[in-house]
Amino acid sequence: MKQVDLAGLAVEATAGAPVVILREHDEPHRLLPIFIGGLEAASIAMAATGQEPPRPMTHDLMATVLAELGGRLDSVEVSELEEGTYAAALKLDGPMGGRLIDARPSDAIALALRLGAPVFVSDDLLDSAGSLPVIELDEAPDDSVMPEEAIDEAVAEFRTLLDDIDASQFELDDPGSETEQA
Description:
By secondary structure, this protein is α+β, with helices and mostly antiparallel strands. It has one domain: Bifunctional nuclease domain, CATH 3.10.690.10. 30% of the residues lie in helices and 31% in strands. The chain has five helices and eight strands. A hairpin with a 6-residue loop joins strand 1 and strand 2. Helix 1 runs parallel beside helix 3 and helix 2 packs across helix 3.
């Protein structure tokens, strides 16, 4: 497993579907885009920008319930791709011991952002070739650039790459569906 950071959110040009973009923490800083639903994209954006809604959203509620029950989110693991859908798990610890709970990557990322938990992607996903949209950056962003600017630069570079990608490569049947599509 390799640690990744949220590089940003984008909209795929041809289908108009939201995409969460994960960036490998260490070199070679590969990007892994995952198609997600619009509500999940909004939840991730709110957490990434530190916005707090007047009433808790589902992911805020999940974070509160976990804390109130004495649990903690150790990490999120995006582990595989099966039939065009990514699989993720929440690695939890609490009074009853450790647990690994199946989750959609978008929900897992939204929760991890709220709780400050690291996100990991399997080596196999990052190493995969073929129709998987895994992209390597030529170099890491300049450390002297502010984090928001680095994210904006990575997203702009990725959007340029998305302009040349055909949505059929991702086996996306319904851009508004609730499953994470490759």
